[in-house]
Amino acid sequence: MPFARLATATTPTCHIGLGLAAVGRPGYINLGRETDLGENRGVDEMRRRTHDLLDAAYAQGVRYFDAARSYGRSEEFLADWLNANPGKNDVVIGSKWGYTYTAGWTTDAEQHEVKDHTVQTYERQRRETAELLGDRLDLYQIHSVTPDSPALTDKELQAKLAEAAGHGITIGFSTSGPAQADAIRAALAVTVDGEPLFRTVQSTYNALETSAGPALAEAHDAGLTVIVKEGMANGRLADPYAPEAVKAVAEEVNLGCDAVALALVLREPWAGVVLSGAATAGQLASNLHAAVVDLDEGRLSRLATLVEEPRTYWEQRGQLPWH
């Protein structure tokens, strides 16, 4: 399958992918967006920013790009870039369905996205994704599966996902919330005609939220490619918001807090691709230094003290404002 080649990449930067959540729409919950993006967040400006990021990422060895139907115009911006760069056939493209973007290109909407894992939403969003990305789509994931998601029990939906897999699209799922481990294990048990349905899992894992780790290791052992999102906890692990322990390690290794945070994830043997959520080319370059961060046992011990109880972590995440 096309996606599998990333799991065996030998270039360190190929283990870092670029997620487009922060640049596909004007509002998001990452800290520091006022500084990162400024006030000009019109469609054309965000398209240019996205293309600049994709150019910088590709030039530095990044080969996985991650979008979603709910990331505003991320699929559109990515499709434009792919069409303008027909020779870049070595990139792997993933997207997600299950949330509908409802903010209308504003930062102060009452509701920015609506979750729905029904067959009807899948069919609509699959058509929308196909209109933009066509046969460039390699991976299609269910967005934010939780243990009670109907996607884990809806046989009609699962059959349609298996049909897409039969046409060469890798099928995966992402998770969110304090019960990520339960969702991962439930998804691993989903089969269609005796075959596992899911080939990838994308979950939140970082210095503050490590609860999905054992289940992600199980998924890796079962043959799934593991993609890690929110490695910097929506900016909580980046300058200037990072805890003192992260800042101290960053000073010791003479690199950014963001590189330290991502390095902690990259060292996990089950981590196939770790996503950068950079909003600027400078942030991306700093993120990519994660591959050379030296985390010795002493530094790892200090970073281990940062782990939060999952429910506390997710409650705080839910309170982050849409900037």
From TrEMBL:
Any coiled-coil regions, as ranges: none
SUPFAM superfamilies in UniProt: NAD(P)-linked oxidoreductase
InterPro entries from the UniProt entry: AKR2_Oxidoreductase (IPR053135), NAD(P)_OxRdtase_dom_sf (IPR036812), NADP_OxRdtase_dom (IPR023210)
Protein name, UniProt field: Aryl-alcohol dehydrogenase-like predicted oxidoreductase
Domain NADP-dependent oxidoreductase, residue spans: 50-305
Gene3D superfamilies: NADP-dependent oxidoreductase domain
